[in-house]
Amino acid sequence: xxxxxxxxxxxxxxxxxxxxxxxxxxxxxxxxxxxxxxxxxxxxxxxxxxxxxxxxxxxxxxxxxxxxxxxxxxxxxxxxxxxxxxxxxxxxxxxxxxxxxxxxxxxxxxxxxxxxxxxxxxxxxxxxxxxxxxxxxxxxxxxxxxxxxxxxxxxxxxxxxxxxxxxxxxxxxxxxxxxxxxxxxxxxxxxxxxxxxxxxxxxx
Length: 204
Prior knowledge:
There is one protein chain. This protein has helices spanning 13-17, 25-28, and strands at 33-38, 44-49, 54-58, 66-71, 74-78, 83-88, 94-96, 100-105, 128-134, 138-139, 142-143, 147-154, 161-167, 174-178, 183-187, 195-202. It has 204 residues and is mainly β. It has two domains: 13-105, Lipocalin (Beta Barrel), CATH 2.40.128; 123-202, Immunoglobulin-like, CATH 2.60.40. Strands 1-2-3-4-5-6-7-8 form an eight-stranded antiparallel β-barrel. Strands 9-12-15 form a three-stranded antiparallel β-sheet, with no helix packed on it. The protein is elongated. The model is unreliable at 3-18 and 112-119 (pLDDT under 50).
């Protein structure tokens, strides 16, 4: 990711990156790709972040190859001497201490979605189930017990996601945003309404 003035790059590269943890699947997709690092004092370099945790530096003679991991919107880069945290911002750039700004080259990879109709897991391993819920319908002063289907969705990712369902009663898709570590649900409005799960995606 970054360079170290007057420090030679590790050679061979295999010795520098042999032992490192692979970035978590829940956040790796936000960081994998090519980035331009605008460092302190106007120095720049290009970094290629690989899904296996390698961070390969180029375009600067003082580059030091390293590794990276992530948690939520924070990427931690390790050059073998010290670690630096980079925070992903809403505009798609990363920032770090000392005014460092890192910009992506090209489009970000698409976040993985579950296949349409999947009804076993939610975002990043969260639970995804349908259940019937008492909708508390009333007829005059008499409460009539009525049950409707609800699609529950638990988000175990480190970032907000939205999930969508299709109803047999309306033409538009119904969706809801789920914050990290939270659960949301979309419920039908009548007993004869069904919901089909369509998938989920990351939201900003």
